[in-house]
Write a structure and sequence with these properties.
single chain, alpha/beta, Rossmann fold
């Protein structure tokens, strides 16, 4: 009798737990993100938009002639990340910075057919379309963090379109998309429902993440904070960031480090706590024909924290290409 009661109680407990796991997430309300506005109300006077790969891409352009620099920001950032170095680089050639899908003011599609616009292949196709649109035969790709991995993936697929790579604290050994065992969980209906709500935590954790990216957080100005948080007011920013998370996967770049034949400069801050400085130093050693520049008193975004030292490293690298 006692055993029967125990088994009955255990069965009821398991049913309750199963209900909580399977149905409970759908009972959590996920209202639209508050305070969002159309992208047109968030754009700068020098913002430009162009249709590429069926997306309305936000970009800025400065300078003229060659070389042509194309700047690719990292996760959670936007083309704003390059604001301190765009004008100086434009004195050397043409500079194009753009927002990758899910970030900045670039269009955030909620539905699509064919290639996932938030996936790595779509990002590479978008970069190719951008070069074609501006009639750029070869470009110097400057990528920070995840933007560095996109630059490297593009160079593997289209080496004939890349003059050189400048990889700024590139996230190569860190992988992508989180632990592999988590990815099937992300795709469950329960997580699909809760996902946009979960990624909204970046609104509260944003300052913490920015501080982690800087060697000296006291240098972070209100302008910097505004530049990073403005895209979080764009319509559907949370859902797009969730779709980006779902599309993220391991880059596999570590298996192809010997396949790069273009000139490469790896730049890292000496105090990078997001992509450890040691990883960038290791990467420069494993890549063929790569140079290394370690920026003193800088974290994950040396182009923002130490722009003068960053530009000096770039100019010294460019002198070796002539």
């Amino acid at each position: 009798m006692k055993k029967r009661r125990f088994l009955r109680g255990l069965g009821i407990t398991l049913l309750v737990l199963l209900f909580i796991v399977l149905v409970g997430p759908f009972l959590v309300p996920v209202p639209p993100a508050e305070g969002t506005r159309p992208v047109s109300e968030l754009a700068d006077p020098d913002s430009k938009f162009v249709w590429i790969s069926n997306l309305n891409i936000h970009y800025k352009i400065m300078g003229r002639g060659e070389p042509v620099f194309v700047l690719l920001h990292g996760f959670g950032a936007s083309l704003y990340s390059w604001h301190a170095v765009m004008e100086p680089l434009s004195q050397i050639g043409t500079v194009i910075a753009y927002d990758r899908p899910a970030f900045g003011l670039t269009e955030r599609p909620m539905t699509w057919s064919g290639e996932n616009p938030y996936g790595s292949q779509a990002n590479e196709d978008l970069l190719l379309g951008l070069l074609d649109h501006f009639n750029v035969n070869k470009a110097i790709l400057v990528g920070n963090s995840a933007g560095g991995t996109i630059s490297m993936q593009f160079a593997l697929q289209h080496p004939e379109r890349v003059q050189a790579l400048i990889l700024v604290d590139p996230a190569v050994y860190e992988g992508g998309g989180g632990p592999s065992w988590m990815r099937p969980l992300y795709r469950t209906p329960q997580m699909q429902h809760l996902g946009p709500l979960m990624v909204r935590s970046i609104q509260n954790r944003g300052l913490e993440i920015i501080k982690m990216a800087w060697h000296d957080p006291s240098k972070i100005t209100q302008e910097t904070l505004d530049g990073y948080t403005r895209p979080l007011h764009a319509e559907d920013w949370d859902r797009a960031l969730w779709y980006f998370t779902l599309a993220s996967e391991d880059t596999g770049l570590t298996d192809h480090l010997k396949d790069f034949n273009v000139p490469i400069l790896v730049i890292t801050g000496d105090d990078d706590r997001i992509v450890p400085t040691a990883n960038s130093i290791k990467l420069a050693g494993e890549l063929q024909n790569a140079q290394l520049a370690v920026i003193q008193e800088a974290g994950h975004v040396p182009h923002e924290e130490q722009p003068a030292a960053f530009l000096q490293a770039v100019e010294e690298f460019l002198s070796t290409l002539r």
